[in-house]
Amino acid sequence: MSELHESDLTPAEREARDAVSALSSPRPDAAYRQRVARAFVAGSLESTIRTRRVLALREWLAVVGAAAALALVALALNRGPDWRVIEAHGVVFAEVDGRVLALAGTDVEYAIRRGTRVRLPKDGSLDIVAPGVLAMSLEGGADVVLPRAPNRWWWRAARGRVNVGNAFISTGRAFHGATLAMATPEAVAHVTGTSLAVLRDREAGTCVCVMAGHVIVSYGQGRESVPVPAGKRCICPPGGEAEIAPILHDSEHALHRLNEKSAAALGR
Hints:
By secondary structure, this protein is an alpha+beta fold. The protein has five helices and 16 strands. It has two domains: 49 residues; 183 residues, Jelly Rolls (Sandwich), CATH 2.60.120. It has a 16-stranded mixed β-sheet that branches. A hairpin with a 4-residue loop joins strand 13 and strand 14. The model has no long low-confidence stretch (mean pLDDT 84).
């Protein structure tokens, strides 16, 4: 590249050149010079590039740590509510972490959690609620694996099981957009918002009664599906075809009682 001659410079360019030439060279700080000299002699002088890489790595780790902390907080806030006892009569046998506990009174409140298997004697009963989301009433003789309440924002599918006995279920305002599958040996009731009963007898099979909303019941080895509207029930005998019939009056009355007990907790 050719150099510019004096005659090629404009007055402004000459003035800028003269101003830069008049600047004094900065003198390095004495303490800094001594620190660099000691590091050089000791062989511990790090390059600027390496230092920048270390700083960038630390910044990246800090960002990852903050993101992980936010993710943990989000997961905790997303978790649905645990079950609370509305009313309990008699002894409740709860299987918690592989242990079978005989519970009564306030002990039931602390043992009933998501995924707990609950068994009731013939003279027992249990009414529980996951505030805003689900309410359940279990009659004497029931053997049920409780579903967890659906989460608040994502992973909103829940699943429970009725091994034997009668379970009455109502959904609350916060259940909207969630799903619940209640399984028995013969069928699965797929719930998207309703009041229903899942009744299971070892010999007669499964009966799903729907008082409000609608439920899809899948049954059989091929998992045939049938919609069950309000006011109807689906009867699924062991190894037989499903049949639609009017809702049982006893189930309707039991669901009305559950709705009255849980109305405030469900936000109805």
